[in-house]
Amino acid sequence: MFILKNSSSISQVAQLRSPKFRQTGPNCTLSFWYYNYGRSVGAAEMQLLVDGLKQPTVLWRAYYNEGNQWLKAVIQLGRLPCPFQLSLDKISLGFYDGVSAIDDITFENCALPPPALSCEGANRFWCRGTKACIDSLLVCDLVDNCGDGSDEDNCNPDLQCDFENGLCNWEQDVEDDFDWIRIQGPTPTVNTGPLKDHTTGTARGHYLYMESSEPRQFQDKAVLLSPLFNPSGNGTCIFRFHYHMFGKEVYKLSVFQRTVSNTKGWLLWYKFGNQGNRWIRQTLYISSSKPFQILVKGTVGDGFTGDIGLDDMSFLDCTLYNGNLPTISTTTSGTSVPATLPMNNCTEEEFVCRASGHCIQMIQKCDFRPDCSDRSDESACVMEVCDFEDKNQCGWYQPDLEQMSGNYSIHTTNLFKWELGRGANLYPGQEKHCPLIDHTTCTEEGWYLFADSSNGEFGHTADIATPVISLTGPKCKIIFWNHMNGSTVGSLEVLCKTSNRTSKLWTQSGSQGPQWNRAEVFLGIRSNFQVVFRAKHGVSYMGDVAMDDITFEDCSPLVIPGRPCTSEEFTCANKYCIPKDSLCDFVNDCADNSDESPAI
């Protein structure tokens, strides 16, 4: 179907209407191929027209000439319980010269789940009216997965929030930089943020979003605080939410858990970068021996196309705590680790959890997953995220300096080595080859790590390493920002070191310009290894190597869950569960390659 016009008529509209559909299931998507080419071809948009709603919902827009090519559009419709139509509108304003066309329209996964004769198992729910058998994780998640609403009956409203009537019992943090905004329809900036909410799938519904336009600056943070929850006991508290991260300059969304009120807690989950124009469901399993709170933090990227959305946040198998979290003195650590080990029956091949005396396998120590309730198995390890603020090196250490520390005849002052620095401490002229601002805060007060080339000589190396990492998962990667500027800057390498072998994973040499540059190195599944950053001295002092914001992403190893895999997951041959969208993506997500099998 195409529109071909060469005319100067004003404000003409071409419309293509779909048949009327009765309803859709929660995973429904619409895809089509479109062609929008010509000097003044203009804009086109797909609208959703729902019975009973006067206001149409814009689902997709093409703003301008997109070249002599067919392009694919994928639209997330989701659960639409009322009859609706789709309208493809093409508007001519003044001179029009071009061709617009559409082809291969496809609806996928739009049916509701079929009725079942039986529905057995602790992890299944039998819908009352439609008799569909669905995963119990879909119960009380603010989505009508059954088609009759029975999976959303008798739910505790204090454990759910769709933001249709405010923030419910969630609160804005007062210690952050700005607040999340409740909104209907699209965000104010084009090419970023949602066009509609997740609850209703229309412009009538409400959701929260984080605005990334001015006056917001890079790394500004907006934090949302959950109500307080009781300890999870022997079970787990399940947190479900939907997020939207669309835009070229989207930065980061992260979720933290805390048991002390004046700390930021520890990281449970995070996601970086543009994830496409769609709402994505995320499920987190939370264990805690103490009352706890969840923090959802959005971080602004380096431009205005970085809006992030949140909607339909719910908890399952959790109970609210009627009290306050304790506070700690800012001079003490949030986790107290006893100096002596508690009574235990652990062997020499096992690690003793410091607070409880519980025994875990040594391979579970330093694997980016806390297996002890007090997180003591991850306390002497490299931190998952390190920004070097507060002069904290996050577990990174310099092996050469530690070997020299016992030899008082050797002075380390003039050695080529890694050290903490900031722009405020630079001497005049040093900013020509050393960062004036850090990457985290973009200020002269922010800290970073650098190898000072005014020490040492040409060819000298400086290593900084992690403690031994026991085990990583199949998607593990390290992301870091580096600054290499100056006429005689040397090189930076990322090495993987085991007991008998050191291999080079990444290298960069020479001046890269006066800015921070992002680098990403894939690690994958590895065991009993160290990551080493090695700086090599150039021919003179005119060129320092610096690093900031080092992050280990998706590095916790796979765990066989004590439950069957859900309908949204694939069961690996080794019984691990992975998201179905990780199938056939050329990545060994299962650790046994069964997710990449041609037989799937």
From TrEMBL:
User: Which PROSITE patterns does the entry mention?
Assistant: LDLRA_1, LDLRA_2, MAM_2
Which positions fall inside the MAM domain? Answer: 1-112, 159-320, 384-557
Q: Which PANTHER family match?
A: APICAL ENDOSOMAL GLYCOPROTEIN PRECURSOR, MAM AND LDL-RECEPTOR CLASS A DOMAIN-CONTAINING PROTEIN 1
UniProt-listed InterPro entries: ConA-like_dom_sf, LDL_receptor-like_sf, LDLR_class-A_CS, LDrepeatLR_classA_rpt, MAM_dom, MAM_domain-containing
Give GO cellular component annotations, separated by semicolons: membrane
The record's annotation in Pfam families points to: Ldl_recept_a, MAM
Q: Which UniProt keywords apply?
A: Disulfide bond, Repeat
**Cysteines joined through disulfide linkages:** 140-155, 366-381, 565-577, 572-590
State the protein's name. MALR1 protein
Q: Which organism is it from?
A: Spizaetus tyrannus
Q: Is S-adenosyl-L-methionine one of the keywords?
A: no
Q: Look up the domain of life of the source.
A: Eukaryota
The answer, when asked if Disulfide bond is one of the entry's keywords, is yes
